[in-house]
Specification:
Chain A: Keywords: Cell inner membrane, Cell membrane, Membrane, Transmembrane, Transmembrane helix, Transport. The complex is a heterodimer of chains A (293) and B (282). Chain A is mainly alpha-helical and 293 residues long. Chain A is 69% helix and 3% strand. By secondary structure, chain B is mainly α. Chain B contains 14 helices and one strand; from the N terminus they run H-H-H-H-E-H-H-H-H-H-H-H-H-H-H. The radius of gyration of chain B is 24 Å and the shape is globular. The two termini of chain B are 37 Å apart. The chains are: A mainly alpha (293), B mainly alpha (282). Chains A and B meet through strand 1, helix 1, helix 3, helix 4 and helix 5 of A and helix 1, helix 4, strand 1, helix 5 and helix 6 of B.
C-alpha cells in the first residue's frame, strides 16, 4: 500500500521523524545494546572495573537452580492466568453477546478494571486475603486452613494469579465480545435450523470461528503476565516467600538492584528480549493485521 | 430460529451479575476500608457497610499523608502521576503523529528503514532494559525529574502504527485536491490531516493516559525523592513498612484515590477507550 500522491522534501521528512527517532535511539537501541554488551562483562566486587568474560554470565545463569525455579514460576504463573482469565472472559462475553436489556451497562461494569494499575490490583487482593485482617481470609482460616500468603509460597502464588486474572478479564472480555459480534448471525441461525442446540453450536461453530481472537489473547496475556505483573508481584510478595514468586522479570530487577549483579542481570535481560521477540513474531505470524510492509 | 427463551436470558443475567460482583468486590472493600479508623480494620472484623471516618481519612490522606511511611501528602503524588500521565499521552501523540506523517506522505530515501527502526521497539518493553536505561537517564541528569519520568516512555511504535494505519485510509484525492489548491505539507497537515484524525488522537490519548498513570517499575527506579513519587509507588511504600504498623485506612484511601482518575476516564470515555484499545491492540 502506497499513497499515489506524495510530498517530496529533502529535509522536512527527516525533521518530522527526528523527535521519535532520537528518543528511540537514546532510550531503546542504546540501552538494549548496552544490555547485550554488559551481559558479556563481569564487574569486580567493588564495581570499579569490568572485564570481558564471553558467555560466562550465561553459563553461570544456567547453572543456578534459582534461574530454573524462576522459569518454572513464570510458566506456572502465566499459564494459570491465561487459562483462568480467558475462560472467565469467554463465559462473560458469550452471555453479554445475547441481546439483553441493559447490555451496555453490563459491559461498562465489566471493563473498568482495565484502568486499575497492576500494583493497586495487588494491594486490593492483598487486603482482601491478608492473613490477619482480610475479609475473605477469615472464613478460610475458620475452615481450619492455615491460609498465609506471606509465609506459604503456594498461597502467595494463588493470590498473584487471582489478582492478575482479575485485572486481565476486562481486556479479554472486550476482545471476545468484539469477536463474537463479528460472527455472522446467519451462520448460527442456519445451524439452529439444522437442529443443533446452543452447546453444540458453541463448540462446533462459535469457538472455532473465535480461534484467531483466542490465539491473539493468549499471546497478549502471556506478555502481560511476563512484564506488567511486575507491579503486582512487587506489591504483594516482593518475590517471596523464599523466592517462590520470583518470575524472570522480577529476577532481572532483584539481581541488578538488590544483588548488584549487573552482568548477570543483563544476561537475563537479553534472554527475556529473545523471548519477547519470539512471542511477537509468533503473534504476527498468526495475526498478520498490523503491518503490510 | 435461535432460542431466546426467558430462562436462557435469566441465566445470562445471573452469570453477568455474578461476574460484576466478583469484579467489584475488592474495590468495594477498599472503599469500605477508607471509611473506618485503623483499629476497626486491624482487629479483622471490618463491617460490610461504610463507617463514618471517610472525611477524616480522605482529608488526612490528600493533605497530610501516612504518618509512618513517606509522610508525603497523597495530593502531591496525584499531581506527579497526573503530570507524568499527561506528559506521556501528549508526548507520544505528538512524536508519533509527526513520524507517521513523514512515513506515509513523503517519499525519501530510508523511509522503510526509519519505519522499521520505530516498529521494532514494539518488542522491547522497558522491563527488559531497565538498568541500562536507568544509567542513561542518570547520566543525562534526569533522575527525579518529570522529563526523566516521561521521555523514555513516550517512544514506542504503538502510536506511529496507529496513525500510519489511519492515514492509509484517507483517500488520496484529498491530498491531490490540497495540492491543486496550492497547499504545502504544513497546510495539509494542519487543515486536513489533523482535523480528520481527532477521534484517533482522542482514542490514543485515553489509552496512553491510563498507561502513564499506572506506570510502576520506571518511576520506582528513577524517583528517589519522596516529593517526586507517583501515587502507585506511594501506596506500595505505605504497605511495606513494618506490617503491623501499616495504616491500612490511609493505604486503602490512597488506593481508591489512585483508581479514580483512570476508571473515570474508562467509564466516561468508553467509546474512545474501546476504539483505542482495539486499534492499538495494547
Amino acid at each position: 500500500m502506497e499513497k499515489r500522491a506524495l510530498f517530496s522534501g529533502k529535509v522536512l521528512p527527516y525533521a518530522l521523524l527526528l523527535p521519535q527517532l532520537a528518543i528511540t535511539l537514546i532510550f531503546f537501541y542504546w540501552p538494549a545494546s548496552q544490555a547485550v554488551w554488559q551481559s558479556f562483562l563481569m564487574e569486580d566486587a567493588f564495581g570499579l572495573s569490568s572485564e570481558f568474560v564471553g558467555f560466562e554470565n550465561y553459563r553461570f545463569l544456567f547453572k543456578q537452580p534459582e534461574y530454573y525455579k524462576a522459569m518454572v514460576t513464570t510458566v506456572v504463573f502465566s499459564s494459570s492466568v491465561a487459562v483462568l482469565s480467558l475462560a472467565c472472559a469467554l463465559l462473560l462475553a458469550t452471555q453479554a453477546d445475547k441481546s439483553l436489556r441493559g447490555g451496555h451497562a453490563y459491559k461498562t461494569l465489566l471493563i473498568w478494571p482495565y484502568a486499575v494499575a497492576p500494583a493497586i490490583a495487588g494491594v486490593l487482593w492483598m487486603f482482601m486475603f491478608h492473613p490477619s485482617l482480610g475479609t475473605l481470609a477469615r472464613p478460610i482460616r475458620a475452615l481450619g486452613l492455615d491460609w498465609n500468603p506471606m509465609l506459604n509460597g503456594k498461597h502467595a502464588m494463588i493470590l498473584l494469579v487471582l489478582s492478575a486474572t482479575w485485572k486481565q478479564i476486562s481486556y479479554n472480555f472486550l476482545f471476545f465480545l468484539a469477536g463474537l459480534q463479528a460472527i455472522p448471525k446467519s451462520v448460527i441461525e442456519a445451524a439452529a435450523i439444522d437442529g443443533s442446540g446452543p452447546v453444540r453450536r458453541f463448540w462446533t461453530i462459535i469457538f472455532p470461528l473465535l480461534s484467531p481472537t483466542t490465539f491473539f489473547l493468549i499471546v497478549v496475556t502471556i506478555v502481560y503476565v511476563f512484564f506488567e505483573t511486575f507491579g503486582i508481584i512487587d506489591a504483594i510478595t516482593g518475590g517471596g516467600p523464599a523466592g517462590q514468586t520470583t518470575t524472570l522479570v522480577y529476577k532481572v530487577y532483584a539481581d541488578g538492584r538488590l544483588g548488584g549483579d549487573l552482568g548477570g542481570s543483563a544476561a537475563q535481560s537479553v534472554i527475556l528480549m529473545v523471548i519477547v521477540i519470539a512471542l511477537t513474531a509468533i503473534q504476527f505470524r498468526y495475526v498478520e493485521r498490523k503491518v503490510q510492509y | 430460529m435461535v432460542e431466546s427463551g426467558r430462562y436462557r436470558n435469566l441465566l445470562a443475567y445471573f452469570v453477568l451479575t455474578v461476574g460484576i460482583v466478583i469484579v467489584a468486590f475488592p474495590v468495594y472493600l477498599a472503599i469500605l476500608a477508607s471509611t473506618f479508623d485503623s483499629a476497626t480494620i486491624i482487629n479483622g472484623n471490618m463491617p460490610l457497610l461504610p463507617g463514618n471516618q471517610a472525611v477524616e481519612n480522605y482529608h488526612r490522606t490528600i493533605f497530610i499523608g501516612s504518618a509512618r511511611s513517606t509522610r508525603e501528602p497523597v495530593g502531591t503524588m496525584m499531581l506527579n502521576s497526573f503530570i507524568m500521565a499527561m506528559g506521556i499521552a501528549i508526548g507520544k501523540i505528538l512524536i508519533s503523529v509527526l513520524s507517521a506523517f513523514a512515513v506515509v506522505y513523503f517519499s525519501f530515501p530510508f523511509r522503510k528503514t526509519a519505519f522499521w527502526i520505530i516498529f521494532i521497539t514494539l518488542m522491547l518493553p522497558v522491563e527488559v532494559r531497565i538498568y541500562p536505561t536507568y544509567k542513561i537517564v542518570a547520566d543525562l541528569g534526569l533522575l527525579d525529574t518529570y522529563t526523566g519520568l516521561v521521555l523514555p516512555l513516550i517512544a514506542s511504535a504503538t502510536g506511529t502504527l496507529l496513525f500510519r494505519q489511519f492515514f492509509m485510509t484517507i483517500p488520496d484525492e484529498l491530498l491531490e485536491a490540497s495540492k491543486i489548491d496550492g497547499a504545502g505539507p504544513f497546510r495539509f497537515f494542519k487543515d486536513t490531516l489533523i482535523p480528520l484524525s481527532i477521534t484517533t488522537i482522542a482514542a490514543l490519548f485515553v489509552i496512553q493516559f491510563i498507561y502513564g498513570w499506572n506506570q510502576y517499575l520506571w518511576p520506582l527506579l528513577i524517583t528517589t525523592k519522596d516529593s517526586m513519587q507517583t501515587i502507585v509507588i506511594g501506596i506500595k511504600k505505605m504497605i511495606t513498612t513494618q506490617d503491623a504498623l501499616t495504616e491500612w485506612q490511609i493505604a486503602m484511601t490512597t488506593a481508591v484515590l489512585a483508581m479514580v482518575p483512570p476508571v473515570l476516564v474508562v467509564v466516561f470515555m468508553q467509546r474512545l477507550f474501546v476504539k483505542g484499545l482495539v486499534e492499538t491492540e495494547k
